[in-house]
Design a protein that fits this description.
Layout lengths: L5 H32 L3 H4 L14 H6 L3 H33 L6 H13 L4 H10 L17 H13 L2 H9 L4 H12 L1 H17 L2 H6 L8 H10 L1 H14 L9 H36 L2
Length: 296
């Protein structure tokens, strides 16, 4: 029977208080935004709306989704998230497997070159000129090609590949399997947790990304939902214009909305999908990170 000292109990109580405070501070801004998004616009402008809607309404969300632009922005974001994440995981895993093979000629040189890119960046202007020469400006591939590979993710996956006993690979070679068959049928099934962790990291990045769209695209057809949100949130005139467009579509809802509540509803609309998906992937994320750290 473990008898806990008084100091241990005080330590646990202190941890509970600190963690509770961190949770509250983390959730509070999101909760306030959620409450405001369900509150009547003009009433919200009076202030004092914090813990629950004072005048409940769905008009803010009806107004947000009355504009077809947001649906196209969602399509761009979802497309880049799915395609970009899938290619990132596939390409990173393929490179990681090659780098994990000790017989690879020039492996140390490749590693030095890749590590160099982790600490040194050419700068925004050279990057822009490079993308221009490659024809990536105003091209959907500007979201995909630059993010196909990550040295950090490659190191995590490579460390796991190295932990797989060499005897398993040698046995597969004796049975006549080639490198690609070993990689696809033997190695990948063993690395699902770590690949899921990499996919989650990259998927969240793609969903939240807007800087590349702001810098390298000018076409509205390539605007992701986060850039659309940024324009609405940071530019009051854009928010007012958006509200006027929504009011013209639904005149009866015009008195129920305001630029501020529209911004809050937009924030919730762009955040909710990733919040819904994350709990289902969290177990793979935690397991993958632990495997990558312990076995590495």
């Amino acid at each position: 029977m473990n008898i806990r000292s008084k100091g241990d109990k005080w330590f646990d109580a202190f941890n509970v208080i600190i963690m509770t405070a961190i949770v509250v501070l983390t959730i509070a801004p999101f909760w306030f935004a959620l409450v405001g998004s369900f509150n009547q616009g003009l009433d919200y402008m009076r202030g004092g709306v914090y813990f629950w809607p004072r005048t409940f309404t769905l008009s803010n969300y009806f107004s947000v989704f009355s504009d077809q632009t947001i649906f196209h922005a969602y399509f761009v974001t979802i497309s880049r998230t799915i395609v970009g994440t899938a290619l990132h995981v596939a390409f990173t895993a393929l490179v990681a497997y090659g780098m994990s093979r000790r017989a690879l000629a020039g492996r140390n040189v490749y590693m030095i070159v890749m590590m160099f890119t982790m600490f040194f960046y050419g700068g925004l202007v050279p990057t822009y000129l490079l993308y221009k020469d490659l024809g990536l400006l105003n091209n959907f591939l500007v979201y995909i090609i630059p993010t196909m590979f990550s040295v950090w993710d490659m190191i995590i996956v490579m460390s796991f590949f190295r932990s797989i006993p060499e005897q398993i690979i040698e046995s597969a070679k004796i049975d006549g399997a080639g490198e690609y068959r070993i990689f696809l049928q033997l190695i990948l099934p063993l690395t699902k947790p770590v690949l899921a962790a990499i996919a989650l990291f990259n998927g969240v990045y793609h969903w939240n990304a807007y800087t590349d769209a702001m810098l390298f695209t000018t076409k509205e057809a390539l605007e992701p939902v986060q850039l659309f949100l940024m324009r609405i949130v940071t530019d009051s005139s854009e928010a007012s214009k958006f509200g006027e467009q929504a009011a013209s579509v639904m005149p009866e809802e015009a008195k129920q909305i305001s630029p501020e509540t529209l911004k809050l509803a937009m924030m919730m609309a762009t955040t909710a999908p990733i919040l819904v998906i994350y709990p289902f992937l969290q177990k793979y994320f935690v397991k993958g990170v632990l495997i990558g750290s312990v076995k590495g």
